[in-house]
Each structure stands twice: as C-alpha cells, then as structure tokens.
Amino acid sequence: MxxxxxxxxxxICFFGAGSMxxxxxxxxxxxxxxxxxxxTFLNRSDSDKLENLKQRYxxxxxxxxxxxxxxxxxxxIVILAMKPKDAAEALGQLGEWIGPRTLIVSMIAGLSIRxxxxxxxxxxxxxxxxxxxxxxxxxLGVTGLSYSDGLSEESRRTARLLFEAVGTVVExxxxxxxxxTGISGSGPAYVYYMMExxxxxxxxxxxxxEQAREMTVQTVLGAAQMVRQTGEEPAELRRKVTSPxxxxxxxxxxxxxxxxxxxxxxxxxxxxxxxxxxxxxxxxQLPAKDRD
Length: 292
Ligand SMILES: NC(=O)C1=CN([C@@H]2O[C@H](COP(=O)(O)OP(=O)(O)OC[C@H]3O[C@@H](n4cnc5c(N)ncnc54)[C@H](OP(=O)(O)O)[C@@H]3O)[C@@H](O)[C@H]2O)C=CC1
Ligand SMILES: O=C(O)[C@@H]1CCC=N1
Known about the structure:
It catalyses: L-proline + NADP(+) = (S)-1-pyrroline-5-carboxylate + NADPH + 2 H(+); L-proline + NAD(+) = (S)-1-pyrroline-5-carboxylate + NADH + 2 H(+). By secondary structure, this protein is α/β, with parallel strands linked by helices.
C-alpha cells in the first residue's frame, strides 16, 4: 500500500490536551497535513480525554510521567497548550528535556518569547508564539504568529503549515499579539454573546428556540460573508440596511444609547491588557535577574 505523503512528516506533541490542542489537531488531521500516528497528546491526569482523542482521531497520548518525558525528549516540535497558570512549572521541566533545535510553538495567552526562554533556561531556543482561536476546529480559525529572533525559514514554514491547515494566518511582531488576542483570540466569545442576546430577543418576540437559533446563525454567517464577498466596508453595508427613519435606525439608536460601539472597543482593549497581565504574572515567577 502506498503511503500518502504528508506536508509535515515530523512528529509533533501537544503538551496539554484541552480544547485548543484538539481544535488544532482536528484541523491538521482533516487536511492531511500530518498523520495522526505522528501526533501525541500529553496531559496531567485526564486519561478519559486521551482515550477519547485516540478513539476519534487515532492519535497517541499519555499522562504517565516517564512516557511524557520520553515524548518531550524526542519530539522535534512541541506545542504548548496548557493554561497560563500551569505554564511556569511545565516549562521549567521541559527545558531539561528538549534539545537546542526543538521547535517550541506556544498557544499560551500572554506568555512572551523572552519569558518562555527564561522559564526553559534556554536563551536561544527557537520559538513561535501563536494566538489561534477555537474556530480552528472547523478550519475557519485565524492565528497570529510571531517568531523568535533568527528563527529559520524552515521553522517559519512549519508554523505556517500547522496553522494554515486550520484557517488563516497573520504574521506579526510580538508586541501586537496581545492586541490580536483582543480581536481574534477572544473575538468568537463576543460574537457568541451577541448571538445569545439575539436569540433571547427572538424568543421574547414569540419565535421558537429552533427558529431563533437558525435565524441568528444565518444572519451572522450572511453578514460576515457579505463583508468578505462584496469587499465593502461594514459601515457601508450597515448603511444599506438602515432606511432613513426606519426600523434599523431606531435599533441602532438604542445600541448607541448604551455605547455599543465603544463597549466593543473597550472590551477588546481590556482583553489585550488582561493578556499582558497574564504574561507579567508569568514573568514575575522568574528570578529577579531574568525579569524585564
Ligand atoms: N480556548 C481558547 O479559545 C483559546 C485558548 N488559548 C490558549 O490555549 C491554552 C489552552 O487553553 P484551553 O485548551 O482552553 O485549556 P484546557 O483547560 O481545555 O486544557 C488545558 C490542558 O493542559 C493540560 N495540562 C496542564 N498542565 C499540564 C502539565 N504540567 N503537563 C501536561 N499537561 C498539562 C491539562 O491536562 P489535565 O486536563 O489532565 O489537567 C489540559 O489537557 C491556554 O494557554 C490559552 O491561553 C489560545 C487561544 C484561544
Ligand atoms: O480567555 C483566554 O484567556 C484565552 C485567550 C484567548 C481565548 N481564550
């Protein structure tokens, strides 16, 4: 039997096996970027989750400390996918096991490349800092990528392949990643919040839950596609919905009473700040000499 050649032939491991790790792995497998046999999930204790991933995707997984160490020592690519609060301890251990050429790809909000290198105790480690979002699980994610100094073109290509498999990619300087987190990293949650409110309004207006859901989904989908396909600005498309002195204008006036526009901007900004705060909390765990 001939083997299909994959875009990435190296083994990768997800250090953390939660929702973001699964979202990205699912996309990689669906797009045949990497064989499931080359993917290993590592977590702390949730054996059921590892078994579930194995059943659904055919991936390997372990939470046994000795096996985890072995996987981390031998994986050329390690994707960090634990929560920020768990990162300091995990990176401290990881630094003892990886080699100088192991490519570290972090999905951890707030954690800077500089802090990662210090936590690893490896000031030259090749690192890609990313900020994906959960829509990656259906191939419609958007991921911000920034690279450690001097990262090879081969490693950059690997990072692009990993995340282009699950959506679009935005390469940017590291100092923009917190801002990007406030837009695309957390953005799906703001859209879902708006959808929750629209669905509630629909049921209050007498529509069934099913009708409310379908109308809301199709409205959001249609509006996003209109922006993409027409190339028109959202403000111009909004103007076309808004008849003078009509119903939409009355609705927008209500949103303006609550400063909806300003609230969204403040929310995105606060998200970025919180991301940076989480990064500083991690930096504070470093010895004083390694802090900024
Ligand atoms: N959710 C989102 O929308 C996004 C999340 N992110 C980032 O992705 C990261 C993961 O988030 P998410 O997937 O939601 O988190 P989850 O809580 O779903 O998953 C975290 C995983 O990390 C594992 N873990 C924690 N500590 C260790 C350790 N020492 N060794 C091995 N595994 C460990 C947990 O294992 P166990 O269950 O066994 O304890 C669990 O599998 C975060 O840093 C977040 O900032 C980035 C973009 C978007
Ligand atoms: O809420 C969080 O911290 C992460 C970062 C982006 C989305 N979820």
